[in-house]
Amino acid sequence: MSTLTNFTAKIHRFFYPVLFGAALLFTTSSCTGLKQASTEKPLLVKNDIRINGRPTLSDDDFDIMRQRPNKGLGNVRMFVSLYGLGSKLGDNGTGNWLKRIGEPPAYFDPIAFNASATQLKQHYFNLGFYHANDTAFTEQKGKKVVAHYHITTGEQYSISEYSLRSTSRFIDSVLPYYPKGLELTDALNAERIEEEQLALTNFLKDQGYYTAQLGWVYFEIDTTAGPHASAITGVVDPFIFGGRDERQRISKITVRPTYSFQNSNAVNDSTRTIHGIDVLQKEKLFRPGFIDEQIYLQRGAYYNQNLLRATYKNLNSLGVFQTVEFNVQPKDSALHATLNLVPLPKRSVSANLEGLGNSGSLGVGGSFNWDNRNLFKGGETVRISLGGALTEQRNSTNTSWLIDARELNAGVALELPKLLLPKALTPKQAKFWQPKTQLGTKVAYQYRAQEFNRFNFSTNLEYSWTKAGAKHVFNPAQLSFVSINFANDTTLVPFLFVGFQNIIFAASSYQYTKSWKNIQSRYFLNAAVKTGGHLAGVSGLNQWNGNPVAQFVKTSLDFRAYRSLVRKRQLASRTFLGVAQSWNSPSGFVPFEQSFFMGGANDMRGWTAYHFGPGATSEDLLQSSGFFAAAPIKLVQSLEYRFTIQRAMKGAVFLDAGNMWLYDKTYTGSFTSAQEAAISAGKFGWNSFYKQIGINTGYGLRYDLEFFIIRADLGLKLHHPGAVDRSNWVITAPQLRDFNLALGIGYPF
C-alpha cells in the first residue's frame, strides 16, 4: 500500500507543473472568476482607497480592509479559476493542491465593507488626524463591485511638549535618566505612544523594578496646547493596581546546565562559582568557570531585564544548548533567578545532498559533518567535515562532449566561545560581545578531465564578535598553499591559467558587517580587507620551495538597501565595488583565489557565471564554454522590484549593470592570441570603462518554502560590451544567446 502511495505522490509531483500550466491556459481563455457571481451576489474586484483625493501609498490602509479582491491580471482572476478547477476535481491530492494555491471568489460582503470604513477612519484618528472625515460607497456594474473609501484627513496634531512624572518619588528620581523616544514636532501617533509605553516600562525593569508592567504607564494628552499641537505627559503610577515602588535585588542565581524536562530534580554535582552562582549538574559536563563567564546577571545587584535578555541571547549563541529557560521568582523581598539549560547531544551527524545546475553544468554535491560539542567542558565544538561534487562540464575544445569534473574537500575546525588571547589583551567587556575563536584546517582537491587537477591546503585562526549591532571578523593568520597540474596544453581555457598557478600566501583579513533600519527601509553594509605576503616581502622571501609567495591586498564594499512599498512590495538595490592589487607577481596578475568573478545567479544575471568580462572581451570568447574570466576590479549595481504573486509565489523585475577589469599595465608570460586579445580588451581606462558597462534586465520567480527560497531568474542582455559583428546594444536585435536562465537558492541579495 505504501508503494502505491509513494508512486501516486510521484505522479502528482510530476504533473503539478503541467496542471498549473493547463490551469493558467484555461484561465486566460475562458474563466474569469465571474461565472458563479450574480447581481445579487457580486464579486469584489477593487478596493479604491483615497486619502485627500489621491490613491493611498500606505500598506496599513490596505491591511485594514476586512475583505480584499482576488488577485489577477486585468479581468482575468487566475487564482479563482485554479480554486474552481480544484473544486471540480474533488477532494483528492490534485484538487486539494489546486485549491491550496488558488483562492475562493471574494464575493462582496456589506458587513465587512462597513467595518473596513469604520476601522480606516479610526486608523487615521490614531495617527493624530482628530478631525478626519470619511466617505464610503460602492459602485456596482453587473456582477462586479468596486468599494470606495475616501478620507479627508485635515491637519495632523503634533507634539509640542513632552514631560514625565511619577506618583513615586523614588521612580521620579530615575526618570531624568530615561532617553525619551518621543521628539518634539513628532506626529501624535498612537502606535509611537504605545512603543514609548513599552520602552519606559522596560527602562523601569532595567532599574530594578521587577514588578513594573505596562499598566503602570499612561499618557495624558492636552490638545489645547496650541493650533494642532498637543502637550503629552507620561505618568508612571506603580500604585495603580496596588503595586509597590520598591527596587528588587537578585539574592540567588541557580544554573542547571544539564537540565532535563523528564527528570528536572536530578542533581549529583553542586558548585558555587567565584561570582556566587550555584551550578547544579546531573554530572559535571560543564566547568563552573565556563558557566560563570556566560551569565551577565550578578548576585546582590538590582534586577536588570536588559542583562537577562543579553544572557539569554548569549547562551543561545553558544551552539551547545537545545533549550534556554529563565525563571525569576520573588522570595523574601528579593529575587531568585533560575536558568534551566537543556544541552544538545554531545555528538551529532548531519548530511546534505543537493543538485547543482549553473553555467552549463549539471551535477550533484553533498556534505557530511560530525560535531563533537563541549569537548573540554567549556562550550567548545569540534567539527569534522567532508564534502564533494560531481558535475558534467563541457570541454573548451569540444562543446558537444560532456566530460566530468570532481571536487573533494575535508576539514576540521575547533570553535571556542571566547577570544583566545592573553588576558592583558582581552577587553573587559568582551564577554558581552558573543565572542568566538575558530581554528581550522581544510584541504580541497579539484579535477577537470583533460584540463587540470588542483590541490589547495589552508589553515586559519579567526576571531569574531558582535558589538553595538555590528559583527566583526578578524583573521590574523591564514596560510594557504595551491598546487595545480595541467593535463595538456595550458591554452585549453584562454585567460584562466595566467593567474591559476602554484602559489603560497599568508594572509590577514578583517570584515565589518552591520545592518540597520528605519520605518520604511532597512540597510546592510559589508566592508572587507584582506592582505598577504608583507612579511615575506620585507624579509626578501619571494619564493618557497620554487613556488612564488603571493603579495597582495584585496578590498570590497557591499551596500544593500531595501525600501518597503505599498501592497507588500519592495524595492531592493545593491552596490558592490571590489579592488585587488598584487606585487612581485611573476606574471603581474592577481592570484586567482583573490580575483573577482561575474555572471550567474547573484550579480549579472544576463550572463552565465564566470563568463562575463573583463572589459570588452569578445562575446565569441565568452560563449566558449571553457572560458573562465577573472579580474582584480569589479563594479556591480543591481536594482530589483519585488512583489507577491500569490502566497508563497513571489515575483521580481530586475536590472543589473556592471563589469570587471584588469589593470592597465604590462603582463608577462607566453600568451596565445586569444589570451592577448582578452588582456587588451579587459584593461581599465578612465575614458572607456563607462562604455564597457554591461546591462541586463529580466524577470524572476521565487517560491518561498519559509526555511529557504527556490529562485529562477530569466535574464536578457541589453548592452553587451563585447558584442561581435553587431551593435553593443544587443537588445535592438536580440538572439537566443542573449537570454540566460539563472537558478539559485535564496534571494540574489
What would you say this structure looks like, in words?
The chain is of the alpha+beta class. It folds into five domains: 2-152, Ubiquitin-like (UB roll); 158-236, Ubiquitin-like (UB roll); 250-343, membrane protein fhac (Ubiquitin-like (UB roll), Roll), CATH 3.10.20.310; 348-468; 489-749, membrane protein fhac: a member of the omp85/tpsb transporter family (Porin, Beta Barrel). 18% of the residues lie in helices and 42% in strands. The strands form five sheets. It has a 16-stranded antiparallel beta sheet. β20 (503-517) and β21 form a beta hairpin. α1 (2-29) crosses α3 and α3 (78-89) runs antiparallel to α4. The radius of gyration is 32 Å and the shape is globular.
